[in-house]
Amino acid sequence: MRVTGVSIAGFGGVSGEVDIDLDADVVIVVGANGYGKTTICNAISWAISGKTTSTQGPRNLYSKSGTTTVELRTDFDGDDVVITRSLENPGETDAKKLRAPLRVRVNEASLRGADAEVWLRQNLAGTDTNEDFATLAQSFVDSIYLKQESLREFLTGRQDTERFDAVASMVGAGRLREFADELQSHKRAWVRAVNQADSALEGDRAKLEDLAASLSVLETEITKANTAEVIGRWQTWSNDVEALGLVATTEAKEWELSESALTKLRAALNQERSTIEQDEAALLAAQAELNVPLPESPDDAEVIELERQVADLTDQKEQVEHDIQLLRVAVGEADAVRRQASSIREELASMASILLRHVADSCAACGQEVDPEAYRRRLESIANETENAARREGAELQRTKLQAAEKRLGELSLQLKTVSDQHRAMLEQRASAQAAKEHRESRVKEILASFSDDLPDASAEAGSEIQRLASELDRVARRKSQIARTLEAGREFDAAASLDSSKTRRDRIEIESKALRSSLASKEQDIADRRRTNDVATALLDAVKSDAETFVADRLKQLKPLLRQFYAAIDPHPTFRSVEIATRQFGGKHRLTPMLRDDEVQVDVTEPGETLSTSQANALAVSLFLSFNLGFAPTHVKSLILDDPLQNLDDVHLLGLVDLLRKILPHRQLIVTTHNHAFASLLARKLRPVSEDFRTTYVRFTKWDRNGPGVEQWDVPAETSPLKLVAP
Predict the structure, then answer these.
(1) Residue 69 has what pLDDT?
(2) Same structural domain for residues 370 and 487?
């Protein structure tokens, strides 16, 4: 396959559309960093492998159409083949979820999806390989496309196991490695399955042991079941149960030792035990009720004393009420007298006033003769009346006595109420205590009435309830203990009674044991077969790994002269001038390590990436890349894509690289990108057309904006002026 052209839309640094003619033996792409050179290389890689080096995926951030499409035109042995990828979900923000199905057009035939991948996988690999497409894509990246950021990745960025896997895929041992990995995976699965199966058998073996133990016990029980001693004890036990009055008599027919008879007698005993437990619970409840103290009943003397106090206070209250009535009458009379005395005193005062002013031998008004003695007597009479009235002023004292009597009446009323309330409460307490006593006696009588009629009357004497309950509880306890002993004694007949079922269980266990032994033997044989298969797989896996290492080592040995030639052409390290690739197996994994050697002093460098300078390491990386591509030819792609290989190469190594590229032109199409115009001119000079069927094309990226790069392209003429390698 040879790349002939690429059309890009909305991809990487191209927001619009760019079409580049790549149908040349040498394609030189030059432009400043960031102008889109790597985008072209990435587009070719994405079209074939579906992978890009960008973490954000293939989309262009400025694309107005929202579409991302790459159309890669190729020549497959004269067939025009167009490989196309387009994003189905360009709006997806997660790059891992982007889908870009493959389309392949071969002349006029069109293939899509899985059919396109199958066609491309087969034609790139050159065989009907079953290698998955992701592996093939990685092989393409490792052998066809040398990215500027991966010049030293092979030396320093990969583990030695990853290097081996990459080279194995290039030399055609990838499928062998995959087979070894698959076999290893199956081997692990077989080991897990065998271990799990063996662990499962432990349960079967334990179960078989349990069955053997159960069978031994049953055999012993069956042997002991029919002895005369057992039959004799059974007759005694069944008679004891019958004597308890729990089952009807058998009318002189003995109970036969059987599972049904044992079940019937045991059921009667259990029923009686349940009844006794209920009776016991009722008696204990009655006993607990008797033990609860009754409400305290007041003493008769206390009641009589309160009744006396009530009568005495009632008499006192009545006497005070009578005195109050008398005092109220006296207060009324005293008030009337007080009012009369007040009038007399007023009259006396008036007469005394006149007398004091006008007393003479004759009346001053009428001239009539006045008897002074008569006036004197009258005044004395008035004075006496006034004195009597004064004495009668003791009504205030009567009023004070009335108030005191009324106060005493209130005190007596309150005291009488208090004593009456106490008397009433005491009567109620006596009634409550009597009711509680009568209730308890009634309850106990009710409980005891359901038991023995021979017990004494509950009301015969104090404490008779407790005596009756204690007696009945003792009887129930004895009955309960007797039933329990009888039940326990009947346990020895379980095996004898279930003789038939024991024989049935024995037969069933024997059948189950036989089937389990047969199954166990079959499973153990299967495990043994699996272990032998695993041993064969282990030997085969070791052989495959060994063959893979041998095959890769042989191919690398064949590659050694070419690698040394390429390494020498680029002018390597001044002392470490010999290069080879060593393979080894460690920890069950194949490993590959590039090595440099100073042949003069026999000194080896096993980690060149850590020893060489950047320029020297890049020269070694380019030599490895080119030798792998030309020596192994892992795909049918006859193109080499070198993305800015000039970086970190000094002038000496740069000239060596150009000379080396010129030597491989007959075998590969070269697509080389660079930011260095002087290097591009040197390439154009050194790789100019040498015949009419030879073409060298020059692609220059003149600018870059949001629409993408500006591109100019022309063919390099057969004759060019000599150019010096100088910075532009």
Answers:
(1) 92
(2) no
**Its pTM surpasses 0.70:** no
For the residues of 266-323, what is the DSSP string, one character each?
HHHHHHHHHHHHHHHHHHHHHHHHHHSPPPPPPPHHHHHHHHHHHHHHHHHHHHHHHH
Pairwise CA distance, residues 490 & 240, whole Å? 11
> 673 vs 40, 42, 140, 654, 667, CA distance in Å?
9, 12, 18, 14, 19
Distance between CA atoms of 196 and 42, rounded to whole angstroms? 49
Residue 358 DSSP SS3: helix
State whether 415 and 329 are in the same domain: yes
Side chain identity, residue 489? A
The pLDDT assigned to 429 comes to: 78
Highest mean pLDDT among 114-123, 158-167, 347-356, 643-652: 114-123
Contacts of 82 (CB under 8 A, 6+ apart): 71, 72, 73, 74, 104, 105
Q: pLDDT tens-digit profile of 601-616? A: 888 877 777 777 777 7
- How many angstroms separate the CA atoms of 423 and 308, rounded? 10
- Give dist(CA 395, CA 380) in Å, integer: 25
Work out how many domains the chain is built from and give that number: 2
User: Is residue 124 pLDDT above 90, yes or no?
Assistant: no
Domain of residue 256 covers 228-292+451-497
Q: How far apart are CA 721 and CA 681, in angstroms?
A: 10
The predicted structure's pLDDT at residue 168: 65
Domain shared by 283 and 346, yes or no: no
Q: Give tens-digit pLDDT for 378-433.
A: 666 765 665 565 455 556 777 787 788 778 778 878 887 888 888 788 777 777 77
- Nearest 5°: CA angle at 280, between 278 and 286? 105
Report yes or no: 226 and 254 within 8 Å, Cβ to Cβ.
no
pLDDT computed for residue 699 by the predictor = 94
Longest CA–CA separation in the chain, Å? 201
Residues 383 and 466 in one domain: no
Helix (H) or strand (E) holding 579: strand 578-586
Per-residue pLDDT tens over the stretch 480-526: 888 888 888 877 777 666 555 666 676 777 787 788 788 878 877 88
Q: What is the chain's mean pLDDT, rounded?
A: 75
Give start and end residues of each alpha helix (H) in 26-159: 37-49, 113-125, 133-143
Burial 636-657 (b: 16+ CB within 10 A, else e): ebebbbbbbbbbbbeeebbbbb
Q: Are residues 275 and 352 in the same domain?
A: no
Asked whether the CA dihedral 177, 181, 184, 186 is positive or negative, the reply is: negative
User: Is 160 contained in some domain?
Assistant: no
Distances from the Cα of 19 to the Cα of 22, 208, 607, angstroms: 10, 79, 43
CB atoms near residue 299 (< 10 Å)? 11
Confidence check: pLDDT of 267 > 60:
yes
How distant is the alpha carbon of residue 249 from its chain centre? 67
CA–CA separation, 274 and 270 (whole Å) = 6
The answer on 341 and 473 residing in a single domain is no
Out of 422, 442, 462, a domain closes at: 442
CA distances (Å), origin 151, targets 54, 345, 374, 625: 17, 152, 171, 9
The DSSP 8-state label assigned to residue 99 in this structure reads -
Residues listed for the chain: 728
C-alpha span between 118 and 226 (Å, rounded):
82
- Is 424 a member of any domain? yes
| 401 and 463 co-located in one domain | no
Examine the domain organization and report whether 421 and 306 are in the same domain.
Answer: yes
The answer to whether residue 385 sits within a structural domain is: yes
- CA-to-CA dists, residue 231 to 242, 268, 274, 469, 496, angstroms: 17, 21, 28, 41, 9
Q: In what order do the strands lie in the sheet with 639-643?
A: 145-146, 639-643, 669-674, 26-31, 696-705, 708-715
Say if 277 falls within a structural domain: yes
